[in-house]
User: Fold this.
Amino acid sequence: MESLLAARLQMAFSLGFHIIFACIGMVMPILMSLAYFRYVRHRDEASLELTKIWMKGVAIFFAVGAVSGTLLSFELGLLWPRFMEHAGPIIGMPFSWEGAAFFLEAIALGIFLYGFGRLPLWIHWTSSLVVGISGVISGVFVVAANAWMNSPTGFDYVNGEFTNIDPWRAFFNPAWFSEAHHMTLAAFTAVSAAVLGTHAILFLLGKRRDLNRLAIRVSAPVFVISALLQPISGDLIAKDVAIRQPMKLAAMEALFETQKSAPLLIGGIPDQKNKTVHFGVELPGMLSFLAHGSLETEVKGLEEIPEENWPPVLITHIAFQIMVGIGSYLALVALVALSIRWRSGDWVEKRWALKLYASTIPLGFIAVEAGWTVTEVGRQPWIIYEIMKVKDAVTDAPFLGLTFAFYLFLYLILFAVVAWLFYRLILVSFLQEKNP
Amino acid sequence: MIEFIVFVLGISLFLYALLAGADFGAGIIEILPLKISRDDKSRIIGKAMGPVWEANHIWLILALVIVFNAFPKLYVFFSDWFHFPIGAFALGIIIRGSAFTFLHYDPIKDGSQRVYRWLFGLSSIWCTFWIGVMVGSLMLGDFAPEDAGFQKYFLHWLNPVSFLMGIFFTLLSLLNAALFLSTELPQRAWISLGRRIVAILLPVGGVFHLLFWLASPDRWKLFFLNPMSLILIVVSALLVGIQLTYLRTGSVFRTRLFAGFQVGLIMGAGFLPLYPAVVIFRDKTFLSFFEIAAPDATLRGLCVALVIGSLVIFPGYYFLMKVFKKRSPEREIS
Assistant:
């Protein structure tokens, strides 16, 4: 396998694996903290039991997220040394803040795990909240580094040299805000949907209905809020991309020619070689409207740049369609859930609704992976947008194909073991009969 | 500013060597036969390491972040020349971190624990070995800026000196863990363990010195015959006597404090002969902290992050240790 491809695949799988655990590490502590808050206020034993069950899940997912994150911090240098040599001093700052937030998260988690019965309840609850907040903050910080790769600022690039470095400007780069809110909401939507769906299935199975009803009550509002906010966030980031990275938008929409009143493409299979799209449905003027707020505005197509600088159109477009499709479905489920809650006063009144919630379990995570595919593949061939190409950043180390195969095998095994452990946690907590 | 950043980097690496070193050693103890039941051993290790093990490894992340922020050329040097040892080490980190968590958080106790325990133990050996290999290669310094291919990626660490350093490091971390757990493990268990470690450590250390001297007498002199290193090594050896006294009296805090001193002194003995250089190449050219530092704006930003981060992290860490030492009316969840 070619070294560049192997390095890209290894990075893609490492990020793809880590992002799932990072999302859970960001959101699950918040849900756990909400459940514990109910116990602290009302002293109901079910809330405490749910908190402890979720806590075990948090510990497992946090640990796997921490070690896969550690691997990523090595991989940046191992696979992309030329990138790190130049980018380190410019964009290292978000990583240092992320490190501090993550450190705080680990300490707070230690306090929470071992603080039962050792701390006053409110202080102990605060530690759970600190785990959640520092997890979200660390995610927001690390997104700044990726945002910088999409909108590099904070330096002058003269004759191939990075000079006049300003790490604060790099940190607060123009893409950070939109990427940060979109990713944070994606994490909240994906994790709360998975929690809601899992407990909906357990409720339908008729096991520990008290606990599952409670879990649904805690996770459903989080899901509804984040899933309904996400389309707004998506609109904001799309408008941002249209201005900053018009060629990424063109690849997302498989728009080969620059057009006024550009259509929004639903579905379709782009044919990059013949610069056309098969089987797509076009909504006239809608892309112009969504990207620039007017049905008439011109949207730039891929023809504006040499073909060698095009992102892979097929992958970017399909990933974008998957992300938008799932985001829309989840928003719809959120609306249904809200209307049921509004009419009946509870989230679990209708069996069909519980089945609907169950359908969302993997969808949020698939959308997160698809979204990152759009961000990363849509930026190709650049590692630093319009400054440095990916092929110029890769290591010249040998055997990268072999290394990739090895890591892939490890990730698959690890994923399977975590899934198995998760099943055992559910089995013990919900499915086995408790002794009286 | 550079001195401050190097100081924090040194502290991070010291705390990583001390705390994660004990953690690695504890992993190895998990699979060693000791005069204590397997379940008791696992419980003791889980209890001693559980609350801090995630935090332990964040010292490494902090060190990494400092290096690629402030000394990107050094980060790239390590990433390039130590591509495979770092890759192997990172692999071990993933396996051992996951195995430790599975061992203590799998809600069903069955044959799986045996697999987790062995994975945790073997990956702990694997990690310490590769750290030692890298340290051995750095001491030997058989690399040059113009290296490429096999010379760059393999030959400078693929030698007996580096491999012996790997074994030496594994034994040192085991000794570190034996000291760390000395008050938790039954006396007969850790004394027997300590004796066995020292019995292997001494000949391994002796052969290492011989091979190192044969391979590169100048390098050997640089590390072991300069006044600063000699003083630090002698003081470290003298501390063993004091430590033995505290071990007999069962003073946990002082035993661990002196173990920390020793780790610091040994690291100082390896680091100070080079300072301000951090890597010296075969042709005597070197990478010095002062010459490869990032621009001032980056260093200033990093200093701000380090100071503010420290104000949050150190009190938090102290609070964590305090909470952990409190007696609990109910058993921990794990």
Remarks:
- Chain B touches chain A through 70 residues (CB under 8 Å).
